[in-house]
Amino acid sequence: MIKIETKRLLLYPISSEEMQKVIDDEKDSEMKKARGHVIISRTQ
Question: In angstroms, rounded to a whole number, what is the distance separating the alpha carbons of residues 11 and 42?
């Protein structure tokens, strides 16, 4: 798996199903909305 890591950030690929679980578990409504855009952009 490819990972990109900086002092403040760790990026790695996940499936749409994994992303949906992250969104479902999110408590902050603004973060939920922002992460929802990731799913939308993947399907376009």
Answer: 16
Phi, psi of 36 (to 5 degrees): -60, -30
**N- to C-terminal Cα distance for the chain?**
24
Residue linked to tokens 């499936």: 15
The pLDDT assigned to 39 comes to 74
- Is there a contact between 10 and 3 (Cβ–Cβ < 8 Å)? yes
Task: Using the Cα atoms of residue 4, residue 12, residue 43 and residue 29 in order, give the sign of their dihedral.
Answer: negative
Half-sphere exposure of 6 (CA within 13 A, CB side): 3
Report pLDDT for 35.
86
For 6-31, what is each residue's pLDDT tens digit?
999 999 998 888 989 999 999 999 99
